[in-house]
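ok so I'm stuck.
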Amino acid sequence: MKLRNLEGIFHGKDFSYFPPESTCPPDLPDTCWEPWENPNDPPENVWGEIHEYELIAIYEPTEHPAFFNYINWFRGGSGNWHRQTGSALIRDHEYINKKPNEDITFFSSNISPQSSIEAEGDGIQYVEGFTEGIMRKKNLITLDYVGLEQKTKSTSKLKRAKTMTTIDGTTFITTISDLDYIIDPGGYPESTNIETLNRPKRFNKNHADKITGFNSSAGAVIINIEGFGLDNSASFKSAKNKSKLSELSTKEYDFIYDLSSGMFYFNENSKEDGFGEGGVVAEFKGAPSIHSGMVHFL
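replied:
not stuck anymore, here's the structure
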């Protein structure tokens, strides 16, 4: 397995054990558990128990083939994401791939630079720890962590996820667990549900995507504009009813959503009447609210 296989984003569960003798690091006695909201994450007075966390990890290559930088996001019962950054060093692996089936084993540290700690104000950044990671398959990583001061032990199993960066620079994460995220302006994940629209074989209701359960409060529509023959100037507008839909079809909007029916249209002929050779692309069941801030182009 080649070292570049470690590059990418992974998602899964982390199970952490806090032994009874766990203590706060001596350098930060008052902010040891600051990132968590007691009593939920972790609960008070439950040392000696195992806690489950959701974990997202990104591994980024550097100029040295055996050295990677990483970012971890994790969250527990409070639902708040916390971030760690650090470095990973590959060990016992040929730089030139002589053993195609060889595992990739690496060590990493969660010690962040002071600038990151000050910017995020996250006490957990100070906790020293060591992680041993193993990639036995291209899409699977296992991690074993030992905290040097708090004596915390954890194990994680992460599966490869996918990222999409839209034309406006927004980054989305999709996982095999059907969990979707958008990276907010502060660099943290936010849960969302992504619907990706592609050009149908024909522009009619029979060939339109039938979309159910779309979340208006935390959803995103991503349109693959290449299939529609459009460039980065693609545009979108919502219509509150059929009359407004007819009016907007004569404007320079490439995509129009009818809030009254849940129909999503491709306006192929721009300012001319009707949709030209375009038409309905998708039907959102229940006609959920979709506004311009929810629509992104890929």
